[in-house]
Amino acid sequence: MKIFFLIIWFFTFQLNINAQEKNDKIYSSLSEALVNPEIVEHLDLHKQKLKSFPVEILLLKNLKTLNLSKNKIDVLPTEIYELSKLEKLNVSHNKLYTLPYNIGQLINLKQLIANTNNLAFLPEQISEAKSLEKIDVWKNDITSLPQSIGNLSNLKEIDLRENIFDRQSQDSYKQTLPNITLYFSPACSCGK
Fold first, then answer.
1. Residues 130, 154: contact at Cβ < 8 Å?
2. Mean pLDDT across the stretch 25-40?
């Protein structure tokens, strides 16, 4: 009887290890990920020459990390909130002018990496993404932060380098957001 339970335990243990290995797999092909979409947690489509967001990604309901960096994507769909388990979103080095207003509905999102785009602002609703710990938006066209950004109690870091913030704005944000590490480029008094 002990041998029987040992054998069952061994196979159960092996199945759990195999399931864990599948969950840790990083898919670099969307077509491969779509074969069994419910097990996909990590998708890396960087440098795939994508000009638009592949809407099929929205079928990956258990996705935790999504890397779309170094493409030519100019719009993220408002339906991105459907990726409710997403923890890390990397859309750096694209052609984004805005982020969807409902990005705050990604309540499990911990890292938003959107550097080297054409973003002029962060949507006010970003403050609804209560799990956010890091926002990386260096090298964009951002000149101010949403007033609600201070409501993100888990936020530890915002990288704003190579965005235009004058010394007064930098000092003001450092005072009003004392628990967040802010990275700015040296202030410029250009044209004054």
1. yes
2. 97
